[in-house]
Amino acid sequence: MDSSNPFDVLVIGGGPSGLAAASALARQLHTVQILDSHQYRNDGTSHMHTIPTWDSKSPTQVRADARQELLTHYKTVQYAEVEVKEVKEVKEEGIFQATSAEGKIWSGRKLVLATGSKDIYPDIEGYRDCWPECIFHCLLCQGYEERGCDSAGLLALDSLAAPPFTLMVSRQLLQLAKSGTIYTNGPNEDLVKAIEPTISTESRWTVDTRRIVRLQKVGKGAQVTLHFEDGTTNTEGFLAHHPNTHARGPFAQQLGLELVEEGDIKVFPPFNQTSRRGVFAGGDAGSSMKTLANALASGGFAGAGAMIQVQADKLEQQCFF
User: Fold this and answer.
1) Alpha helix (H) ranges present in the chain?
2) This prediction's pTM
3) For range 201-210, the mean pLDDT
4) Is the pLDDT of residue 209 over 70?
5) Which of 38, 98, 220, 284 is most buried, most CB within 10 Å of its CB?
């Protein structure tokens, strides 16, 4: 649809959050265009968990089934596999425009960013090769299959270098492994001092401050070998780490959206509107809780928020947000 006949809502991103947003809008007969780049944070994950009826299923298959269900049941929803390169607001026309690399333009009255997030990997050789098969960002999502392993490790880097989170994930790790090692990747006196009173009460915890120079898959389950600067190695059943992230795509910058300190798009609950009216964000792009359950819920609320504004605007009535 062109600017003279825009979609009610453009949804950028066809993962769980974007599909949930489109589903909410479709239930009220709104026209929706989903623009999906097919770039997903969990691309390397073979199975998903913690969602009833979807447990242990392939994320790829779940997305395909959900997309087919949506497009079959709701005729006001359209889908395009395309990478959007630019989004902008055309205020004089009261619309948002999304443009592909090929120059095709889609117009909509509201915009939902459900692009997901992109991981910023630490500067350790081999880390990318081990993610996410051997390095788990969430021990509810992964780790259960490795339960009972002799030992596992936690990379106390990025957000997991904050003592409360170091200890929280370390406790989760000990639920799955017989012992655990907290790797600081070099001296971190402040962290060690902060966690020492707690870890000293549990003999299964160890802290290792050696510098890691390389990570290597073992090829057996999720086992990974850590190579240290001093020439020694250690093999763990798996590693836990939560890398820093930022919202995928250039759209927050193009629209001048506020970001939180961690790099996610700042949203205002419950409908997850961003700092720009008419732009909503769902899923990983607008939340530090990067889980499937949260993506579904926040995407649904973002879709509902866009719906509420579109309906008020069409009748030239004031919306309460």
Assistant:
1) 16-26, 59-73, 127-130, 163-176, 189-199, 251-255, 292-314
2) 0.94
3) 96
4) yes
5) 284
